[in-house]
Design brief:
Layout lengths: L11 E7 L6 E8 L3 H7 L4 E3 L18
């Protein structure tokens, strides 16, 4: 069985995000939202993509203003 890397909550990681057609992907930064315990127990992590692209606002978008 392949071992999964686990990350701490609020770590910034680089992961391959698929394009909408899922034919290809590109490595992008993401914020780990799930707890280490969750990540370890289910072998998955809940991530939020980090982007600077100016697109139409999504319902739960949060602007980062203190950088």
């Amino acid at each position: 069985m392949k071992r999964m890397l686990t990350f701490e909550t609020f770590s910034v990681v680089v992961v391959p995000f698929p394009f909408t057609n899922q034919a290809a992907s590109k490595k992008r930064p993401a914020l780990v939202l799930s707890s280490t315990a969750f990540n370890t127990s289910v072998q998955h992590s809940v991530l939020a993509m980090i982007t600077s692209t100016q697109n139409t606002k999504w319902l739960l978008d949060v602007a980062i203003t203190d950088m």
